[in-house]
Amino acid sequence: MPLRKLAHLTLLALGLLTALAGFFVAQLRFNYNFNDFYPAGDPDLDYYEQYAARFGNDNDYVLLGLEAPAGQTVFEPRFLTKVDSLTRFIRARRHVTQVSSPTTASNPVVEGLGVFNVPYLHPQEPARRATDSALVYRTPGLVGNLISRDARAVTVLFQTSPNLSKPPGDSLLAAVRTELARQGIPENEYHMAGKMVAQSVFVDRLQMELLVFMSLSVVLVTGLLWLTFRTWWGVVLPLVVVLGSILWGLGVMSAFGVSIDLMTALLPVMLFVVGMSDTIHIITRYVTELGYGASKKDSLLIALKESGFGSGLSALTTSIGFFTLMTSTIRPIYNFGLFTGIAVLLTFLLSFTLLPAMLLLLRKPQLRIPRETGHSWDGVLGRMFRTVLARRHWVVAISAVVLGLSVASASRIRINSALLDDLSQNDPVKLDFKFFERQFAGVRPFELDLKPAPGRSIYDLDVLRQTEQIENYLQKDYGLNFVASPVTLIKSVRKALNGGLLTEYRLPDSEAELARLTRKVKLFRKKPEFRALALPDGSEGRLTGRMPDVGSIRADALNAGLRRFLRTSVDSTVLQTRLTGSANLIDKNNENLTLNMITGMSIDIVMVTLIVLLLFRSVRMTVVVLIPNLVPILIVAGVMGAAGVSMKVSTSIIFTIAFGIAVDDTIHFISKLKLVLLKEPSLFKAVRKTYLMAGKAVIVTSLILVGGFSTLIFSSFDGTFYVGLLIGLTLLFGVVAELTLLPILILAFYRHRPKEIRQPVPLLEA
């Protein structure tokens, strides 16, 4: 079949597949589900899901903080009237299941057979303001929870339907903001926090940042391609190939029902810069052969033959680098690794089908400066090669010093994460969350499952006393600013039965009094707060609370102390407990981060080792290849340690991805060296020739990779910022190591035996 006809058929087939991919991409949606970051398959996750089915999720709520006007307190009648109006408005909204507000907080009093709820605040009776405020500050559970300690702000907390998705969540938040504006409350006087708020903001920003990053990457890569090839097709053809592979990759992801989230949003940018490697190696070799005077057909065949082996190996190692992220128990990282790895292989496929087809159909390009004796790059790379070898002792010495300092600095890296890790310190959303930590109980939920020993009830006096002991520890030593449990229920009932007097807010003194109280509990069982703290049959209870987001390192220390306390101070024959909750699950990710990273890196290193062993049958060569790729990883780890960057979910992927990408150039280099050694008996001449052949593509692809990843530093998400910065630095250090350490190490340690040279493979002299 004629080559031109084959090219037309190839383009037709690829066009049909691209149209199919476009169909699926049109159905792709953005999503951010906080629950996706729980460790999948973990027993604690199964336990929490069952616990949440009984008591409800601990993060299906929104906190609305309202600040009183300057110079006023929250007890001003006009301010309280606005709060009450907002409370009634929110309560009437769809998907709102419960609202807690200072204006709805009441002191229950039992008289006869009925329960009367006496409000703590009376906005319509200004004369009672002093009495009301005094009562509020004496009542447990109000100050620091619904009213700030300085009386300058209040919180309206509203529970929402379980796992509310973004569209209805956005509608609810928009309705609340519209009502706030209608009541004349400026944006600087209210604050909102909660899972639903973060979910809304994250998805909106993902959409905007994806557009910005892709635009910046296209502009940057276009400029670099133009400077490299100085031809329109040298710019357009790589862009067509890579954009096509992105479309295919997103199409596959959509076909499997996966949405774009905080991690998979990196796929297009990642693929755009990584996918350029194969096209640049092909076009660079193609242009080089044209410059030496070869025909278009011969130049293309030589470029494909020489690049195919190296590109295939590099695509394999890069995809393996992403596939190793599938060892993660965090679903977004798993999906990101799986579909980016698939997309890398699809890019390789397009590079060796779409690109050759387009080059065949184009006329033979007229190069600006045809040369038959070499290119200007040869002179630059030749001088660089001589300089590196002449100063090899300095190169090795400086590398050793930098490596030693980096290892020392890397030891300072800590694994630490927080609930809003990916937002910068000055982000408006994070500032709102900090407002609730500063003025109220905080935003980090706490959950402890309470199970009475067999034969006991959650309302047994011994069980309640043990629970109260745990409450006291949590408030004094653990840091909970708000706590509620079945103890809260019994104390509240006792107070209600004794005229609502605050002095009666305590546990009963005897079993007989407790029996009288538990009989009255049924009067309150319809109240949502009662249903949320104990099962109707008393077989299980819930201790819940809130605290500041102290970070996982501090949380781990607090949890270790809590477990010691529970083990030594709580009688397990009376009460059994288990720490659970969404925050606990997020903290658990940290236990897996190091293991996942080591597993991913180990798989990468093993695969590269096997590839080099198969190519050279030499353990020495394997070590020689690994060193220039591990050195940049260790240097960047040192940078992380020196800069105080913590290891967390978003940054844990950096080393695995960086190694998988950085090793690409090494694979290209040694695969070309293998071909050259089949004809060139001198190792020195073979390394020099390979250096000249691969050097330009290595430099250009590295510049594009570094430039492409550097666009991510403009992200408002800290995790994305560090992914861009640190992978970019790794690749920058990698190309330096590639062009300095690698040739030195090969010449110093590789033992090439010319007598083993077989029949040479035809190779056009460079």
Automatic annotation (TrEMBL):
PROSITE patterns: SSD
SUPFAM superfamilies recorded: Multidrug efflux transporter AcrB transmembrane domain (SSF82866)
Location of this chain's protein in the cell: Cell membrane
Membrane-related topology note: Multi-pass membrane protein
UniProt-listed InterPro entries: MMPL_dom, Mycobact_MmpL, SSD
Alphabetical list of Pfam families matching this protein: MMPL
Domain SSD: 239-361
Listed name of the protein: MMPL family transporter
Originating organism: Hymenobacter canadensis
